[in-house]
Amino acid sequence: MIVDVAALRFLLGERHPKVALVLGSGLGLVVDELEDARRIPYAEIEGFPESTVSGHGGAVVLGRLGGVEVLILSGRVHYYEAGKADAMRPVLEAIQGLGIERLVLTNAAGSLREDMPPGSVMLIEDHINFSGAHPLIGEPSDARFVGMTEAYDGAMRAALLGAAERLGEPLHRGVYMWFSGPSFETPAEIRMARGFGADAVGMSTVPEVILARFLGLRVAAASVITNYGAGMTGAELSHQETKDMAPKGGARLARLLAAALPEMDR
Ligand code: HPA
């Protein structure tokens, strides 16, 4: 399905967002920080996919964060929902079609580091795709051979790190490893991920980063840590815990974003 960009442009009216922001599980509270918010349910935008995951909204929200016009995608579609690694492609193509050049992705993730407890925020500096899935399989053009050496934009990362420094907010930096889900990892998989050099694990973001780079968008991404990886504590993992814990780091993430967005335009 293709999104009619002209129809979407019409729905936005006078708004001309500069940055698109995808919100992860339980991070809908970032929307509460918007000035002049206007909500357009996905159902009103032909071609936008509906998320089936509780804790994910289903709307585009326009507004200003830190004085910058943003288009928030509140709710994403995951690979594990229908086995489609390119589930977010129509949305990202629409973002590109609107002329938005920057994309900030957020997610809830499990920590692989004892010094990064639940409630922490981690700036993603690189990722590992060991899932076997890829959003560009079947893409016919040579553009599918996307360079991933600098997938996470240096200037956008610097803006987030600078904001953290100014606010005195801790901001971890690390490697995010994508697992397909929807089950959580096993303790053995978590030990493997640690051995591979990952700092956090999650079920999203990586296919979106690949698609965004394919489309020429500049990307930054951050994880809100909701739990330690499986087997690191005695506790069993659950989606309820993700939803309960995400708002704790989510408030910190919202402050970081509001301070970083004005600096990202470089
Ligand atoms: N694993 C995968 N995805 C997650 C986790 C996790 O531990 N926590 C939140 N999302």
From TrEMBL:
Coiled coil: none annotated. InterPro entries: Nucleoside_phosphorylase_d, Nucleoside_phosphorylase_sf, PUNP, Purine_phosphorylase. One of its GO terms (molecular function) is purine-nucleoside phosphorylase activity. PANTHER family: METHYLTHIOADENOSINE/PURINE NUCLEOSIDE PHOSPHORYLASE, PURINE NUCLEOSIDE PHOSPHORYLASE-RELATED. Its EC number is 2.4.2.1. Pfam families: PNP_UDP_1 (PF01048). GO terms for biological process: nucleoside metabolic process. A purine D-ribonucleoside binds at residues 185, 227. Keywords: Glycosyltransferase, Transferase. GO terms for cellular component: cytoplasm. It comes from Aureimonas endophytica. The purine nucleoside phosphorylases catalyze the phosphorolytic breakdown of the N-glycosidic bond in the beta-(deoxy)ribonucleoside molecules, with the formation of the corresponding free purine bases and pentose-1-phosphate. The keyword Mitochondrion does not apply. Pathway: Purine metabolism; purine nucleoside salvage. Phosphate binds at residues 25, 56, 76-78, 108, 204. This is Purine nucleoside phosphorylase. Belongs to the PNP/MTAP phosphorylase family. Residues 18-261 form the Nucleoside phosphorylase domain. Homotrimer. It is an enzyme of class 2 (transferase).
